[in-house]
Write a structure and sequence with these properties.
Rossmann fold; alpha/beta; 14 helices; about 300 residues; five-stranded parallel β-sheet; single chain; about 45% helix
Length: about 300
Amino acid sequence: MLGNVVATAPAMRALMHDLSRLIEAKSPVLLQGESGTGKDLIAHVIHYSGSRRDAPFIRVHCPSIPEELLESELFGHEKGAFTDARHAKLGKIELAAGGTVYFDQIHDLQPQLQAKLLRVVEERRFERLGGTRTLEIDVRVLASSGADPEAAVKNGSLRADLYHRLSVVPLILPPLRTRREDIAPLLELFLARERQRGATRATRFSVEALAALQSYNWPGNVRELRAAVERAALLVDELVLSLPALPPAILANPLTLWEGRPRLQTLKAVEQAYIRHVLEHAHGNQSRAAEALGISRKALWEKRRRFGIP
């Protein structure tokens, strides 16, 4: 296993096989996949598993840097480059010298800066904002895109030349719904982490809860699964986490198991059954039940009245 990557499913084993061959390569890598599939984790694995591990790893979240500051943040600036530039400043690319710079959501980078980045990838050269000296740099470039990069090229948000240079070795992370063999190991991993930080004493999920978690489609992927475990750890103080500990979205899934048997149900029936389970688990405590449901006591009272729950 590389890093903390769970790779039981065939799709993930194939990904990790490709990844192991890229660790010591100098080529850029483009990580593709839906939100929450673990692109940041894989970027860290590439850096910290290779010979650059003791050098800096600099992450650039492209959408979060204001447009007017982006060039200076990436490439640095010389003294006097603009009104407030009283001192020269190193950019993130220069700060990553000898290590790795990771561009998260590369398609959100301005096209003119994509051209400058392409030069870094191809020639290992750049100039600071307001500077005239050409600087050389030894840095490995990683990038990620949650959007379809080919569609981004077509709509003009991603330069075709940069895309082709970055995608020499593309790594496509599979969504969690296509790697269900990894759900149980991931649950164990995240639950163990919650125990280590003292958030829970639970050691496992019940059979019914595990079946519900495995049948859910996970639109938020691994990030959503981890949040579900954190929620259960915060709200339930038992050794076994059962169905009421799960988020409403999972319990509203028609394939969720109730009483150990799969059956299709209406949303109303699922909600009614879930409220009954939460009330039973809370031993009739209205405040605790409402907190677990994420609603007010008044909203809980209205739902009980509508569903005829005593």
